[in-house]
């Protein structure tokens, strides 16, 4: 009887078609709702996240790393050490945690977060509307650039310029877990309210039962261990891994912006003489563990604006200054250095090139009018502009005690009197803060000079080299400070080089405009001056982002550091002269290609201080020199020696992301497995049964029913 | 090759050949010797060539044991020390892990 029943259900040729159509009609509505199952499970948060990435140097790896498929953990909001204790106890048996923490508390708990193995990821939440509080957060060490400092041999004296709660520097810890920075208020609300409060927050001290809200953070770095290892592997294993090149890490590289005034000319016998050059220098760069979060406003930009203002003032009276300087056979060198915050990349390379007589360019037999090479004994004074803008108003000059108590004391005092600043410490144990001037002294311990900063014994800047170094300055006070320092520096410079200080004035409006452009505005091309400055720059999408980080793309102009490219245009605008008979960009470019002289560079740009659309070919002495650590040039350099910067940046895998989901009780996995086993066994039974009765289903005489319309 | 169809002299010849060739740093030949001729050497009731076959199987077994110790030791040493050896570890490697030391 069973077999008869099955026989009646047997499908003939035409019935089969009907059934097929019926099935499709039933299931089509379901198929058209094409949302992937994955999208129904995970909620992706990716509108404004920034990820912590890995840097490697000669001996260590620092920064973050996640597993290739991401680190998964239960979200836990930490506001005090009580929550960290709760995580340690793990009373809810959650296993691994992803800590959500407000940026205000990050510095305080950074070491604990890094140490605890049950915490596999960190979500740093920064609400833009709230200030970060009085504690501040700096990602740099308490003694920045300690390895390459000139005092690294002298362990006795404590070096604690930077007020930070994590002595080693949050950026320089080896986290081995991903850290994501979120500053979108909507996403922060999702994490705190929809995820944490709804599912995870303990009620009455009791851990919540499953389902709980979990997250997966994916940010995989390919380089590991240290810079020599990843560079060696890149070379050794290329070819074996399938591609001809293997890309694991890149050295940090970009360019310094320098300008000599007046220029030297070997053919005209205008050359450097002993101690004839005054170096005015500032640093352009900052860093952070988060990609694209390096505003560096007080750390770097404050000094840059000051130097640009001085350059502008001198540029207004360029001819007068140049001829006065030539009479005295003195020269001024503006030096805007890159990579200084990461073990003095720019300055160490500049001094290395000086020692090889390749600074600013190598001597060439084919160029007619060429510059003289600068060597270290030509340098007569170094004035460095460190952090300038913190409210408080007072500025100090920092000297090295050994230099100041030596024979150069008088030279320092003369310049000091011109600036009107007082010394932070005039004893013979006085130490310099982290500054490029240290690198000059490392090469020649008798160059007089000092560093101007708005601090005496500890930085005023609580956000030194961090993602939060923005929106912390009081605009009016900062502009006043910058103007005051610029005026003092201008007087010192013009007196030393040209023996005159009247007739040069700092344009306060220029400082106001630059401050507005670089610091107040959200992007670097929202104000007039920078909009005009970036007109002819390629790849404007990158240039407008507020990044002062040196980065790895220095060799490709269109992708090199935004701050450097903008500063280049501004310096050319201040120090250059418009060439009258060059009317097109191509003609201007042609002039640089001719190489009849290497004293001048030629740039096509708008007049930054006008509002018309006319462009000019500017001839100026502004040049770009390499800011790449000598560690990557010297053959067989011992990367562990700590003499030069060895920083490289890891390449990271393209799939980066943060997604939230609900994690069911662990028992669910067991139930699903058992259900699957049951379904499997039942299917096998059905198949066996069908196999047994198959003679009834399949016609033993094929062809008997085909084409028979009655069935 | 089916040992059932091979004469005892031939078996001895094979066992001997595998042993001697195994001395050319080919421990897998010794492994084959031990596995293949074990039944012949120890389980089968005595036959004229069995003593010699037994000897060769034992020598192969000893050699195999030494090689196993050698391989296992080297594996343990390499796996635990590869990272610490730095450059030398990389020169000895064919593949390396991405993202980890």
Automatic annotation (TrEMBL), chain A:
Entry's transmembrane regions: 668-690
Localization per record: Membrane
Highest taxon listed in the record's lineage: Eukaryota
GO BP terms, alphabetized: Notch receptor processing; Notch signaling pathway; protein processing
UniProt entry tagged with the keyword Membrane: yes
Main subcellular localisation: membrane
UniProt xrefs under Pfam families: Ncstrn_small, Nicastrin
Record's GO cellular component terms: plasma membrane
Ranges for domain Nicastrin small lobe: 51-223
InterPro entries: Ncstrn_small, Nicastrin
Keywords: Glycoprotein, Membrane, Notch signaling pathway, Signal, Transmembrane, Transmembrane helix
Entries under Gene3D superfamilies matching the protein: Zn peptidases (3.40.630.10)
Topology with respect to the bilayer: Single-pass type I membrane protein
Family to which the UniProt record says this protein belongs: Belongs to the nicastrin family.
The protein's name: Nicastrin
Protein species of origin: Plectus sambesii
TrEMBL record, chain B:
Main subcellular location of this protein, as a coarse class: membrane
Annotated coiled-coil segments of the chain: none
Signal peptide region: none
One of the GO BP terms on file: Notch signaling pathway
Cellular component annotations (GO), alphabetically ordered: gamma-secretase complex
Cross-referenced Pfam families: PEN-2
Bilayer topology term: Multi-pass membrane protein
Transmembrane segments: 18-38, 58-78
Protein's cellular compartments: Membrane
Keywords: Membrane, Notch signaling pathway, Transmembrane, Transmembrane helix
Family membership: Belongs to the PEN-2 family.
Protein's UniProt name: Gamma-secretase subunit PEN-2
Organism in which the protein naturally occurs: Plectus sambesii
Lineage: Eukaryota, Metazoa, Ecdysozoa, Nematoda, Chromadorea
